[in-house]
Amino acid sequence: MERGDFDTLSDLWLDASHGEISCVHPGWPVLTGRGEVLRSYALIMANTEYIQFFLTDVRVSVAGDTAVATCTENILSGGPAEEGDDLGPLVGQLVVATNVFRRTPDGWRVWSHHGSPVLAETGDEDAEDTGS
């Protein structure tokens, strides 16, 4: 995704012979099927000049031929540049993500991705604000 390599990104997803895939980008409806999911990534990549992911809170659990990975995606991205600028404005975003993988003869492939925006900070400040 960071390199804008659509072919490599497509290869990471499960193909139709192994089951139907699904994807939820933050704020999007559920996308089902390889065509819908890959079109969404093509659209995102076509409209994102720069994107970088810093993954934190990574947890992985494997059971047989299925794996679940959860993490926080700390995303820095920018759209097309304004006239005369090298880069568009950069925006930071936190997304919590769940990725489900299936083991295939060709290796692990993404079966489902669900990303939800983090809308509020959590921690000691929240406890003080709520009187807890």
Automatic annotation (TrEMBL):
Domain of life: Bacteria
Annotated Pfam families: SnoaL_3
Limits of the SnoaL-like domain: 2-118
PANTHER family registered for this protein in UniProt: NUCLEAR TRANSPORT FACTOR 2 (NTF2) FAMILY PROTEIN (PTHR34957)
Identification of the protein by name: DUF4440 domain-containing protein
Species in which this protein is naturally found: Streptomyces solincola
